[in-house]
Design goal:
Elements (H helix, E strand, L loop, with lengths): L8 E4 L4 E4 L2 H9 L1 H59 L1
Antiparallel strand pairs: 1-2
GO biological process, one term: mRNA splicing, via spliceosome
GO molecular function: RNA binding; zinc ion binding
Keywords: Metal-binding, Nucleus, Zinc, Zinc-finger
């Protein structure tokens, strides 16, 4: 090895840091308190976002159902009014 060669490195997505890409370094890093806290925090964040997304979708679904119900009611009232007008027109 007469020339310089870089050692492979691995990026930890939870800790946002680079570590040597070899088994002992990776295991040492993953056993660390900071890494475990970061993983737990990431899992909690994913759960929270998932719950918020589900609530938001449910709220939107309810709003759309209410809008559709109001539209159907207005449509039925319009149809009744139009039928009433057509009866008056025929009588005249």
């Amino acid at each position: 090895a007469d020339y310089w060669k870089s050692q492979p490195r691995k990026f930890c997505q939870y800790c946002k840091c680079w570590i040597a890409d070899n088994k002992p370094s990776i295991e040492f890093h993953e056993r660390g308190k900071n890494h475990k806290q970061n993983v737990t925090a990431k899992i909690d964040e994913i759960k929270k976002k998932s719950i918020e997304k589900a609530k938001k979708e449910e709220k939107m679904s309810k709003e759309f159902a209410a809008m559709e119900e109001a539209a159907m009611k207005a449509y039925q009232e319009d149809m009744k009014r139009l039928q009433g007008e057509s009866v008056i027109t025929v009588v005249l």
